[in-house]
Specification:
elongated; 1 helix; about 0% helix; about 400 residues; 33-stranded mixed sheet; mainly beta; two-stranded antiparallel sheet; disordered N terminus
C-alpha cells in the first residue's frame, strides 16, 4: 500500500497527526450506449494521495486546515497557496472556493459542530481528510463538494466521523459530491440523511479496501445514490431499516437534456469485489437493497440483505447479473419476507417481493448464494430473464421469464 504522511499542524491545539492511506484499487466500468457525449476525467489520470510524485512538502504547501468548535470554525490557508479563498469568515458553515487548475489540494478537517457545514467549490481534483469530525448542519448538507473532478475522501486511521444534515433542507444528500468519489482510510463514517439521500455522487462512487466501516443511520430517500457506477472493494457497509427508499441505487449519468452521457464509466452498474454489505429493508414498499440501471457484477465479498417490506427486492438489475469469485470468496444471503406491493400505481397488478430480480441473464460461476422466500429456499426467491449456472452453490428456487 502506498503511503502519504499528512503533516497537519492544527494551530488551535498545536498537534500533529499522521494518516497512512492509498489503495491499489482501480475503478472499473464497462462501455454503455446512450445519448450525448461528455468527456470525463479517467481514474488513471488521477493518482490518489500517496503516489511517488507526492511529497510531504508539496502536500503541506497545498493543505488547508479546518477546525470546528461549536458555532465557529478556524480555517488556515498557507500564505504560499494561491487560488483558495474562505468566504465564510469564522462561521461554522465553512465555504471554500478554489480557482486552481494545476495542483491537487488537500483539506484536513477536525472538531465538532452542532450547527455547521462544509462547502467546497472548485474545478480541480482534491482530497479531504476526516480526522474525528462530528458535524450537524441546521442549513443543508453537512458536506457539499461542488467539484466535477476526482474527490478523494480519507478517514484517518482509528477515527469515527459523523455527519448529519438539516431535515427541512433541499439538499441532495447529507454528503454530496459532484465528481468522481473515492473513499478510503481505516476509519468509520456515520451518515444521517434527514432530508434526502445520505450519500450521493453525480458520478461514480468507489469504496476502497482500506475502509473500516460506513454506517448509514438514516436516509429519507436512497441511502447511497450515484451516477455512472458503484464499486466496493472492501470495508463494511451497513444500511439500517431507517432508510425510506433503496439501499444502493445506481443510475446512468445524464446531461441537461436528460440524455444518457456516453463514456466508458457511465455503465449504471454495481461492482462488488470484496467487503461486507448489510442492508435491511423494512420502512417503505417497493424498495430495493441494491438497484442498478445496468449490470450487477459480484466477484467477492459478503452480502446480507433482508427484504421485509411489501414489493421489495434484495437485489434488482435492469441488465445482467454475474456472480463469481474472481477477486475473493463470495457469500450472499438474502431473505425476502415482504408481501405484494400495495402502492397505488401497482394496485391493478401488484408485484411480489423477490430476493433477486434480474431483467436479463443471471449467471453463477462460483460462490454461495442463498435466497430464502417466506422462510423457505423451496419457494421462488429469484426471478430472471434467463439463468445459467456454471459452478458454485445456489440455494434458491428460480423463475425464468423466457
Amino acid at each position: 500500500m502506498k503511503k502519504l504522511i499528512y503533516l497537519c499542524c492544527a494551530l488551535m491545539v498545536g498537534s500533529v497527526f499522521f494518516s497512512s492511506c492509498g489503495d491499489d484499487d482501480e475503478p472499473s466500468a464497462n462501455n454503455n450506449q446512450g445519448g450525448n457525449t461528455e468527456q470525463s476525467e479517467t481514474p488513471q489520470d488521477n493518482p490518489t494521495p500517496g503516489d511517488p510524485t507526492d511529497t510531504d512538502e508539496e502536500v503541506n504547501d497545498s493543505l488547508v486546515l479546518i477546525t470546528y468548535s461549536g458555532t465557529t470554525a478556524t480555517v488556515n490557508i498557507p500564505e504560499e497557496m494561491e487560488g483558495v479563498t474562505c468566504t465564510s469568515g469564522t462561521s461554522s458553515h465553512v465555504v471554500l472556493e478554489s480557482s486552481t487548475t494545476s495542483k491537487e489540494l488537500y483539506y484536513a478537517i477536525t472538531g465538532s459542530s452542532t450547527d455547521g457545514s462544509l462547502t467546497i467549490m472548485g474545478t480541480y481534483k482534491l482530497s479531504v481528510l476526516l480526522n474525528g469530525v462530528d458535524i450537524t448542519s441546521n442549513r443543508g448538507a453537512a458536506i457539499n463538494i461542488q467539484c466535477g473532478k476526482r474527490i478523494n475522501l480519507i478517514m484517518a486511521d482509528g477515527t469515527t466521523n459523523s455527519l448529519v444534515d438539516y431535515a427541512e433542507g433541499e439538499q441532495k444528500a447529507c454528503l454530496y459530491t459532484k465528481g468522481h468519489f473515492e473513499v478510503e482510510g481505516n476509519g468509520t463514517l456515520n451518515v444521517t440523511g434527514n432530508a434526502n439521500h445520505a450519500i450521493a455522487s453525480k458520478e461514480y462512487l468507489q469504496v476502497k479496501k482500506s475502509v473500516k466501516a460506513i454506517n448509514i443511520k438514516k436516509a429519507a430517500n436512497d441511502a447511497i445514490h450515484v451516477g455512472q457506477f458503484f464499486q466496493m472493494n472492501g470495508g463494511e457497509l451497513t444500511i439500517d431499516k431507517n432508510t425510506v427508499n433503496d439501499g444502493i441505487q445506481v443510475e446512468y449519468k445524464t446531461d441537461d437534456n436528460d440524455q444518457i452521457v456516453v463514456d466508458e464509466e457511465n455503465t449504471g452498474s454495481v461492482i462488488i469485489k470484496g467487503g461486507t454489505i448489510n442492508i435491511t429493508l423494512d420502512n417503505a414498499e417497493d424498495t430495493k437493497g441494491i438497484k442498478a440501471d445496468g449490470d450487477v457484477t459480484i466477484s467477492g465479498g459478503t452480502i446480507n440483505i433482508e427484504a421485509k417490506s411489501n414489493g421489495s427486492r434484495g437485489i434488482q438489475s435492469d441488465g445482467d447479473m454475474t456472480i463469481s469469485e474472481d477477486d475473493a470468496t463470495t457469500t450472499m444471503t438474502i431473505t425476502a419476507t415482504g408481501d405484494k406491493c400495495t402502492v397505488a400505481e401497482d394496485a391493478a397488478d401488484p408485484h411480489k417481493c423477490w430476493g433477486i430480480k434480474v431483467d436479463g441473464e443471471l449467471t453463477v460461476n462460483a460462490g454461495t448464494v442463498t435466497v430464502t422466500k417466506d422462510g423457505s429456499t423451496t419457494k421462488k426467491g429469484i426471478r430472471c430473464g434467463t439463468y445459467t449456472k456454471k459452478g458454485g452453490t445456489v440455494k434458491a428456487t428460480i423463475k425464468e421469464d423466457e
